[in-house]
Amino acid sequence: MNSNVQRPRVVIVGAGFGGLAAAQALRRAPVEVLVVDRTNHHLFQPLLYQVATAALEPADIGYPVRAVLRRQGNARFLRGEVTRVDWAERRLRTVDERVIDFDHLVLAVGAVTADFGVPGVATHAHTLKSLEEATTIRAHVLEQFEAIDRDPAVIGSGAGTFVVVGAGPTGVELAGALSELIHTVMARDLPDLDVDSTRVVLVEGADRVLGPFDPRLSSRAREHLSRMGVEVLTGRSVTRVTPDAIELDGGEQIATRTVVWAAGVRANPLAARLGLTQERSGRLVVDEMLQVPGHRGVWVVGDLAAAREGGGALVPQVAPAAVQQGRHVAAQIVRSLRGEDLAPFRYRDKGAMATIGRHAAVAQLPIPGTGRSLHLSGIVGWALWLVLHLMMLIGFRNRLSVLLDWTWSYMAGDRAARLVLGRPQDRRADRAVPSLGEPDAPRAAA
Ligand SMILES: Cc1cc2nc3c(=O)[nH]c(=O)nc-3n(C[C@H](O)[C@H](O)[C@H](O)COP(=O)(O)OP(=O)(O)OC[C@H]3O[C@@H](n4cnc5c(N)ncnc54)[C@H](O)[C@@H]3O)c2cc1C
């Protein structure tokens, strides 16, 4: 045990859903908790697409970790990026060479976007995993409309075509929200815009959208997307992304300046630096208790953990799973401090939801003990989606702010968060404006 502290020290790396749930569940435990995160905020990733499409402000879905832990006497926060762990000494190091000792370690650093080796994704596509990325997409999309306003001919070279790759919940929600932004807000903001010449294209490698959902809900989602003007291409793979186009299997090209890659995730690269066993997508192998085999007191939760449901399928990488795992690990740490036997983790599936636009969402909610699920769609699914997401947000201010923004959008058909900061030539897409005699900067990935 750590010599210079009275109580055992639990270090939690990552203040996402899993890490924060573990920290909060330890509030009455006789331990010192240190939460380390490379950002200073907890991020509600399920609503990132709304920041990217100007419906919400970044501060609506981010919450300072220090504010979350303020009233928790046994917890502290450190902003730092963890780069390695010395298992023999039981200490970890941050990028600025800070050394942190631990008695228990909870690894909760989540996942990153996977490009599956497709050429051009890393340099020319946008990803949606952080607030910086969401605001970059927002600025980029809005800049396309400014460029079209200055010179409508740029529509022909892809300025009016927005491609989303991956039709899981994130891709479906983003494509629907982009279409709404164009057909409601942009159509009004730019009176000369020929809305019919813009396109939102959703590309999916599998044969249907929302693969994990019941096929009937997938069909309803697809129909609704089509009614909203989204072109849905299923069974098609993107083989290359260039600055001005995507290439599909078979060689077909779609001219576009905007590609958002929402096709999947892989484990945080930190996992590969720890010398622990990883499964195929890089997730760290854990035992039933969520402990790393052979490393007592080292736990993994959330998207990073290769936890299995009853020894079978991998637990899905979703927020409720991360929260359940965080709480479970907190309880096991307390048990182990008391010398009690550890309990295995049991995942409780809370179902899945995706909203497709105003008045439309699909939801698949398991009915406990029956092996069946309740399917909702349309306005009922949408209302449930709104309520659940509001409840899941951290902080009263954020809930109120999101509620106000949604109400305003609903009543006024407007999007409040449409400021673009910086000069036009700083932006990836806006090559139409050589500004103030400065050379036109080469296009770089945002
Ligand atoms: C766009 C998007 C939409 C989503 N929509 C949904 C949805 O609708 N419903 C749902 O259930 N799930 C959704 N998810 C998935 C859900 O967000 C994740 O399953 C969940 O966030 C996993 O929680 P976690 O604690 O494992 O990791 P995260 O919440 O990702 O937290 C990881 C934390 O670790 C920190 N970190 C990373 N590396 C380091 C390091 N080296 N050192 C220190 N800190 C580090 C990060 O800053 C972050 O705060 C979505 C994800 C995305 C990206």
What does the model show?
The chain is an alpha/beta fold. It has eleven helices and 25 strands. It has helices at 17-25, 48-52, 58-61, 65-69, 121-124, 131-150, 169-189, 215-227, 319-338, 378-392, 396-412, and strands spanning 9-13, 32-37, 41-43, 62-64, 75-79, 82-86, 91-94, 99-101, 104-107, 111-113, 126-127, 161-165, 199-204, 230-234, 238-242, 245-248, 253-255, 258-261, 265-267, 284-285, 298-300, 305-306, 352-357, 360-367, 372-377. Strands 5-2-1-9-21 form a five-stranded parallel beta sheet. It has a five-stranded parallel beta sheet with strand order 11-18-12-13-14. Strands 6-7-8 form a three-stranded antiparallel beta sheet, with no helix packed on it. The radius of gyration is 23 Å and the shape is globular. The protein binds flavin-adenine dinucleotide. Flavin-adenine dinucleotide binds next to helix 1, strand 2, helix 2, helix 7 and helix 9.
